[in-house]
Amino acid sequence: MKAIKGPAIFLAQFAGDADPFNNLGAIAQWAAGHGFKGVQIPSWDARLFDLAKAAESKTYCDEVKGTLAEAGVELTELSTHLQGQLVAAHPAYDLVLDGFAAPEVRNDPAARQVWAVDQLMKAAKASENLGLTAHATFSGALAWPYLYPWPQRPPGLIETAFDELAKRWTPILNEFDRAGVDLCYEIHPGEDLHDGVTFEMFLERVDHHPACNMLYDPSHFVLQQLDYLGFIDCYHQRIRMFHAKDAEFNPSPRQGVYGGYQPWIDRAGRFRSLGDGQVDFGGIFSKLTQYGYDGWAVLEWECCIKHPEQGAAEGAAFIDAHIIQVTERAFDDFADSGADDAANRRMLGL
Predict the structure, then answer these.
(1) Rounded CA gap, 287 and 332, in Å?
(2) What is the mean pLDDT of each run of 10 residues along the chain (350 residues)?
(3) What is the pTM of this model?
(4) pLDDT value at position 85?
């Protein structure tokens, strides 16, 4: 067993145009001031990070790490959630997703997809240059509009979608493998990889690729009413990243898991600030520690009620309180009889 590293924080929800959220040095100092030891950087936010430069220049990467070290934090991982979404996008979402892409490829889905793949390739090299071992992304979604089996799906539709998804991601997985970096898909509604079964369907099609792994976020499982503790038992060997995010599901006679098109504040399932929801983080930290997860516990703050700065301040302490110091000896060592092999044989009557 190994101790989980943390607390760390994903900066995507906090980056902005006002100080201290508009540059890497200032936001790193802000994070350290709240008690965080690591930061996860959204690679698309030019206010904080230059992905193209990081892929080309180890000097720039050293500068990034130096800026963070000066503030007293480490870089945990990079994220390409937005770019990953564009590797495989159903045409129904073209207009919505255009804002995720660079201006020069908007209104051109084919060019946008090529751009997205190039972004992931750059992220692999940048992660290598930064000395990172894991990377966060989304799988994108070709089949998501057909999630519910009505109207009846024609035979082979889902299989074709997953075949194409694997085809698009395999070269990217190869690049991350070459770089020695685990590519961790956040298992998330809105993505074709949104639960264990869909991850298995994809994993089979990429021939159980060693770089194909998971970002575990229990909040998305609460909203799907999935057994998030049992999930760790099933998939711990592929869980290489962890977002500590809380959620709650309050069933009613008027609304279920689909949410009734309501805003977040009025949904049966909604994200909450860490510690305010229903997630059993004691169970999660115990299971992850049991299975030897030694990556970072990264706060991803999302809440429809609480102010983000309060959520960040409380989240660091919450994660820190849940990190388990791994024992170096058995709890019943005090009763050790000191028997040897010969004594053992006598005890068995041998």
Answers:
(1) 21
(2) 95 97 98 98 98 98 98 98 98 96 97 98 98 98 97 97 98 98 98 98 98 98 98 98 98 95 97 98 98 97 96 97 85 65 89
(3) 0.95
(4) 98
CB 86 within 8 A of CB 115: yes
Q: Where are the alpha helices (DSSP H) in the chain?
A: 24-33, 51-56, 58-71, 81-85, 94-97, 109-130, 157-179, 196-205, 218-224, 228-235, 281-290, 308-322, 341-347
DSSP state of 124: H
For residue 135, give the nearest of 116, 120, 118 by alpha carbon: 120
The helix/strand/coil state of 326 is coil
Residue 181: how many CB atoms within 10 A of its CB?
A: 26
SS3 100: helix
Q: At 95, which amino acid appears?
A: L
How far, rounded to the nearest angstrom, does the alpha carbon of residue 229 sit from its chain's CA centroid?
16
Nearest to 171 by CA among 116, 129, 90, 109: 116
* Residue 279 CB neighbours (<10 A): 23
- Which residue is listed with tokens 């059993």? 280
Length of the chain: 350
- Which amino acid is located at 232 in the chain? I
The two tokens of residue 70 are 């000066």
Rounded CA-CA distance 10/296 in Å is 11
Report the C-alpha gap between 67 and 106 in whole angstroms: 33
Quick check: helix, strand or coil at residue 349?
coil
CA distance 350 to 343: 10
Per DSSP, what are the bridge partners of residue 78? 41, 135
* Phi and psi at residue 244, to the nearest 5°: -85, 100
The token duo for 88 is 């495989």
Spatial contact of 326 and 285, defined as CB atoms under 8 Å apart: no
> Which is it for strands 134-137 and 212-216: parallel, antiparallel or unpaired?
unpaired
Cβ pair 9, 31 in contact under 8 A: yes
Task: Give the C-alpha separation, 66 to 19, whole Å.
Answer: 20
Phi, psi of 239 (to 5 degrees): -85, 110
Task: For tokens 């799906």, name the residue.
Answer: 153
- Contact between 278 and 249 under an 8 Å Cβ cutoff? The reply is yes
Q: pLDDT at position 335, please?
A: 56
